[in-house]
Amino acid sequence: MTDAQPPARTDLDAWWRDAVIYQVYPRSFCDSDGDGLGDLKGITSRLEHIASLGVDALWLSPFYPSPQVDAGYDVADYCDVAPEYGSLADFDALVARAHELGLKVVVDLVPNHSSDQHAWFQAALSAGPGSAERARYLFRHSPDTPPNNWGSLFGGPAWEPVQPLTGKDEDRGWWYLHLFAPEQPDFDWTNPEVHEMFNDVLRFWAVEHGVDGFRVDVAHGLVKAEGLPDDEVGPDRWGSDDEEPGKPKAPDIGPMFDQPGVHDVYRQWRGVLDAIRPEILLVAEAWVQPPSHTSMYVRHDEMSQAFNFDFLKSPWDAGHLRQVIDTTTGYNDAVGAPTTWVLSNHDVVRHTSRFGYPPGTSTERGIGADDPQPDEALGLERARALTLFALGLPGSAYLYQGEELGLPEHTTMADEARQDPTWLRTGHQVRGRDGCRVPLPWSAEGPSYGFNDTGASWLPQPPGWGRFAPGGQDGVPGSTLEMYRSALRTRRERHLGRGAIEWLDAPEGALALRNGATVIVLNTTAEPVRMPVEGEVLVRSSASTAAGGVLAPNACVWMAI
Q1: Whole-angstrom Cα distance, residue 331 to residue 312?
Q2: Does residue 285 have an active-site annotation?
Q3: Catalytic residue among 212, 217, 244, 404
């Protein structure tokens, strides 16, 4: 960290500085036509539920035309809606209704790679070596072996031979780069045409369709090290049989990510968006280390926010949590940016299940029926407590669909039902992310628990899924749904997102802080602890959380002082 003053910023009053943003995974949210896939009309029909939570915005994971090799993160057309999700008219209706309800709309943008079915890549295959069409992607010639030793985050090599795709002799010895699936070729961001195409995409959604922000997928990607040198760690940087692909073995993340040139891209984007509406959000999905590198993405002329993955990855340990909070807020404060707080998303095991294991247990490979199962009650207890603690911190927070219902991971899904490419490309060594992507339950009974009227579901829902439906929690004191609503209402009323952290002395295994006139205490131990101060209880993570000046195990409380 640095003692230098933050640079002058013009976004200090921006809506996103303290926003709570709710992630919608369209495929699994609500299905209006009964085909087993969620869609835009289904989302629109449930916007009142999202608004009732008290959040500020919803973020839509990809809904673009896609072969769905990677659940929509293989985009075939950046300026349209996949037919299975609806139409541009349906999207406009969703945005209009969201805005009526006071909700901003953030969409996903995938700039590191496209689908192999994108018109540009198909033109590149047809045009042949040395063509302008191929210069938009990273094609390289190497007679007998791949051009370098890079590995794919989804397993296997990061290079795919071209000749088997085209059948042309001239393509022998030619390869293209894909850091993810072979069906996701990487763009060449040294090409000005790529820059202009994405500038146009930003304008299309922000100007013509009224979106309020963009979540940037693999924001630390795009630019590669000059000359595409070999990776010193080797092709298995992203994991082996006992590690998850995508988790680097070394402190750095190699010559394929977090290159200095990527910041020039985001400065350009900031300029494009400022010319439209300066308050448009840019949030980075940037899995980089150390935290000082993450803060570089949110300097005054680049992005608005970056996901705080150090917090998401934190174990159930008070000391570790405080260290992460201090470090990440310190670096973000130094550049004048807000810190974000996130515990679940579409790429990780839901925190209700992660915290059902002893601290230190890894769930990064996913959870299957033959794995040790989490303690569901303990996991929910801890998840509620840490969620409440996080919502009391200054900055912005992200929620993943269904966490307000207390949804756990689907940990007993039959392996033959899995669709995640990490499961398929690692030879069934890594179960992947399907367990957190299961369609939501909207009713206690009925076909697919209210996800639709037919019972069709692209991923199977576990038995008893309906017990988490909102109808059984709405208005019920102490329910997870009502805890979220109470916390978000109180957060807004007491301006906690715009506050500051003042740490208070606390017993070992507990954390206590003051944010304005609110004291927040978290107990991560299995024993009750004495609360460091007394005050009026505002929100508690469970009915038995705080009594007689004592905080229950695995609990959190907010108090007015």
Answers
A1: 17
A2: yes
A3: 217
